[in-house]
Amino acid sequence: MGIFNNLFSSKNTNPEEQKDQLKWIPLTSVDQLNEIEQNSSKRPQIIFKHSTSCGISSMVLRTFRSSYFLEENQADLYFLDLHRYRAVSNEVANKFQVYHQSPQVLIIKNGIAVADESHGAITSLNLSRYI
What we know:
By secondary structure, the chain is of the alpha/beta class.
């Protein structure tokens, strides 16, 4: 049972608690979406929407963390816990005109979502194309 707990558990899925190369910014407020929109004219803004109760979301998050490396100032990377911040998640979908999915990655440039992927497609997303 231990291997299944490691694969599908939502424990330690908060990227702030993980040791990885990515510098996550917690997305916890609807007000931050205006900042994301404004900052997207300077550099890409990336939002990772994560469901802490979903095994697939946990696996995709782990793969994302181990597959991507961003140098400082290449992009801002936001982490959104869908269960804790449901209103923020709903506003992300509304503001950037994307259909809500989980897990999901959005790339915001010049105020619009130029890319969004969900589930397994996240791991094949070519971030360098947008940076």
